[in-house]
Amino acid sequence: AQSVTQLGSHVSVSEGALVLLRCNYSSSVPPYLFWYVQYPNQGLQLLLKYTTGATLVKGINGFEAEFKKSETSFHLTKPSAHMSDAAEYFCAVSSHYTGTASKLTFGTGTRLQVTL
Amino acid sequence: DAMVIQNPRYQVTQFGKPVTLSCSQTLNHNVMYWYQQKSSQAPKLLFHYYDKDFNNEADTPDNFQSRRPNTSFCFLDIRSPGLGDAAMYLCATSRVSQRGSSYNEQFFGPGTRLTVL
């Protein structure tokens, strides 16, 4: 069984400040990890993903995340927040086996507010 | 541009009146998923089609059905919508390959927001 825990349902930062959204996972197999962003009344857009290889992954819009196996974490960061970053962010873990459809288990989401 | 399309974007139905939501894709992906997302909650997988094979999640109510008449289209049917079925319904697609990487990324549509009166 897999699960994802996102600490903090709401995070507020000032424009230009560091963004840090926390995600911890539980998985019985090597995980594939994702961060998605969702703007109001829209679908999910993939920000970045960790599958294999380099543990520091860079995504769109200046976001990056680091896979830390020892801490079972995959925190999302951005050095300088922009007003357009205000949205809901979901961390997800994938269960999959070769030749089968992937299944995503999502965290409960973190709403990011960016203030002037 | 290749994409996942959901129609309509907003759907209003009456309590107990059957409703169908539509998803189409131009990505030629062999897997299509339906998720339910209630307000301020995470998306919850209802079921998925891998080619023509239907895979239902164990806790998906019988009130929810799906059809996939061809590769490009997939429908979500709610036979008797209740007030608790009001939610955003998200369609996603992915391509499973029997060779190479076991990972297949999911691409999401914009969603259909269902209101039940």
Structure, explained:
The complex is a heterodimer of chains A (116) and B (117). Chain A contains no helices and twelve strands. In chain A, β5 (32-38) and β6 form a beta hairpin. Chain A is 0% helix and 53% strand. Chain A is globular and about 45 Å long. The relative contact order of chain A is 0.32. By secondary structure, chain A is an all-beta fold. In chain A, strands 2, 5, 6, 10, 11 and 12 form a six-stranded mixed sheet that branches. With 117 residues, chain B is mostly beta strands. In chain B, strands 2, 4, 5, 6, 9, 10 and 11 form a seven-stranded mixed sheet that branches. A four-stranded antiparallel sheet of chain B has the order 1-3-8-7, with no helix packed on it. In chain B, β5 and β6 (53-56) form a beta hairpin. The mean pLDDT of chain B is 92. The A-B interface holds A 32, 36, 41-46, 49, 51, 90, 94, 96-104, 106-109 and B 4, 6, 9, 31, 33, 40-43, 45, 48, 50, 55, 88, 90, 92, 94, 96-98, 101-111, 113.
Secondary structure topology:
The complex is a heterodimer of chains A (116) and B (117).
Chain A: E1 3-5, E2 10-14, E3 19-21, E4 24-26, E5 32-38, E6 44-50, E7 56-58, E8 64-68, E9 73-78, E10 87-95, E11 103-106, E12 110-115
Parallel strand pairs in A: 2-12
Antiparallel strand pairs in A: 1-4, 3-9, 5-6, 5-10, 7-8, 8-9, 10-11, 10-12
Chain B: E1 4-7, E2 10-13, E3 19-25, E4 31-37, E5 44-50, E6 53-56, E7 64-67, E8 73-78, E9 87-94, E10 107-108, E11 112-116
Parallel strand pairs in B: 2-11
Antiparallel strand pairs in B: 1-3, 3-8, 4-5, 4-9, 5-6, 7-8, 9-10, 9-11
